[in-house]
Amino acid sequence: MTNSDISAVFDHVADLLEYQGGNVFRVRAYRNAARTISVMVESLASVRSDSYRKLTDIDGIGVDLAGKIETLLDTGRLPLLDDLEAKIPAVVFKLMRVPGLGPKKVKALVDELQVDSLDALEQACREGRVRDVKGFGEKTQAAILENIGFAKSPEHDRLLWEEADAIVQQLLAWMRECPAVRQAEGAGSWRRGRETVGDIDILVDSDKATAVMDHLQAWKECGDLLLRGDTKTSVRGPRGVQIDLRVVEQDSFGSAWQYFTGSKDHNVRLRSRARDRQLTINEYGVFRLVPGADADSKPVKGAAVAGRTEQDVYRAVGLPWIPPEIREGGDEIGLADRDELPTLVTIEDIRGDLHMHTTATDGEATLGEMVRAAIERGLSYIAITDHGQRVTMAHGLDAKRLQQQWGEIDRLNDSLAEEGRSPIVVLKGIEVDILEKGGLDLPDAVLEQADWVVASLHYGQNQPRERITKRIVEAIENPCVSVIGHPTGRLINRRPAYEVDMEAVIEAAAKAGTFLEINANPWRLDLNVPHAAAAKKAGVKLVISTDAHSTRGFDVLRCGVLQARRAGLEKEDIANTRSLDQLKKLIKRGNL
Ligand SMILES: [Zn+2]
Ligand SMILES: [Zn+2]
């Protein structure tokens, strides 16, 4: 079994345990293990066979999960999953993908209406049978009908960028081992850093296409062959994703890389710019157009003027190189033409992380473990922001427990300072809940003592647009609130954003000086790109936060940075690129 097979098994177990109403922490342990494994570059089999290491060395893999991995590697099956599958109908898995349908509702639908597919559910809604089930009603039925398309859409089956990235990195490492390969690079939507990736495009520079394509087929993760031509091969890769490999000559590598990176809209505009300059541009290079044989015929392709590098290709049409993340056919060519391309924020620019959880609520690591991990990652400040009391499921903090945690943070900062030059400052924070009826779940008198307050909306997500907008705008206007966490609540592939007037939210944030978050969790990436760009335009500062629930949770920072880059954001636009002193000046309360 490959890592992705094992990851899929654990994900499935998590779904089924969740359906059974299993322990939240147990569900999360499987879910997190699935994610860790899906983005691991090394195979679990090789970790296991290495006599110097153990599976339990992997972050988040305890003795129990390590045993299950060994069983899977040995037998290809997991008795726990077989048990669960014997008890739970297969359709449950699909129904739980409908936004708004939790385990309890799914169980009711299966028990009462014998719903056995998404189509059957849709039909039951249309026939008005769902509203009569206990706990449902007209409104819920309408919501299911509206959301069922989301679960059925193949668009929501695409890999998250982070998952695609794990595959691309392994594949490139493998391809670069082939002696016939001069260069190997990824292209397409992966390279543009899109939230999700459909197919994976790989480009190789080589004179020996046959050897290169054979090498791809020899990859241990390579599935079915879909197509094989002279210079192009398509295969199924891990998790069923289609991988397209193209082999090109050295002189065309840059133009092919540019061409297959896309986007289509960007390339259309680039081609038209080339034509204005009597040039033509394609995956083989940039060519001069020369007059046809007679006066009436179209111009024909003449000598190549560029193709070896992407820089050459852009230079040939009078442009500087454009970062892939903004090649979406917006105004990037105009900006490049006027020499006004943004200097996009980089991961090295980020100095602190201002949203994370510990074992005090639903995190997996203690305060001390989170701080050590943050120091290892070179962060110079972090804010501990466990949940407020409303999030009972996560054992949210009331004022008393919060004060205790802050006392602990004070002592920790003191002891770090005693060790000499303190490597990190830990801020006393909280993720307060924006309540269903409005207001926050902790009193201002408590929040005033915090260094940093994230306000987020976790409940009442089905309320009408005006209600939700009002709740968020009020939180923005509260002088204690530093930032709004995951402002639209969407989960990519799983749940659309709640109804909210983002224009009003951005306007209120600009006026109050409250920051908006770009939550870097690959399922969230919230704000999305258009909203983040609009926030910048309105003068709102953004904060890129990991919302880490474990020490490896810090690793998603790069996903948030990519999102910010795609929105055209610069270092200046992101509050946590500042030093702590500068950040304090930027926070609206300034009482840090
Ligand atoms: Zn949250
Ligand atoms: Zn959080």
Q: How would you portray this structure in words?
A:
This protein is an alpha/beta fold and 592 residues long. It folds into four domains: 154 residues, DNA polymerase beta, N-terminal domain-like (DNA polymerase, domain 1, Orthogonal Bundle), CATH 1.10.150; 90 residues, 2-Layer Sandwich (Beta Polymerase, domain 2); 84 residues, Beta Polymerase, domain 3 (2-Layer Sandwich); 240 residues, Alpha-Beta Barrel (TIM Barrel). The protein has 24 helices and 17 strands. The strands form four sheets. A seven-stranded parallel β-sheet has the order 11-12-13-14-15-16-17. Strands 2-4-7-6-5 form a five-stranded mixed β-sheet, with helices on both faces. Strands 8-9-10 form a three-stranded antiparallel β-sheet. Helix 18 links the parallel strand 12 and strand 13. The longest helix is centred in the C-terminal third of the chain and has 20 residues. The protein is globular and about 85 Å long. 44% of the residues are buried. Bound molecules: zinc ion (2 copies).
- The structure class reads alpha/beta
User: How far is it from the N-terminal to the C-terminal residue, by CA?
Assistant: 52 Å
Percent of residues in β-strands? 5-15%
Question: Which overall shape is indicated by the principal axes computed on the Cα atoms?
Answer: globular
How many helices does DSSP assign? Answer: 24
Query: CATH-wise, what's the superfamily of the largest domain?
Result: Metal-dependent hydrolases
Rg over CA atoms, rounded to whole Å, is 26 Å
Q: Stretches where pLDDT falls below 50 for ≥5 residues?
A: none
Overall mean pLDDT stands at 92
Helical percentage: 40-55%
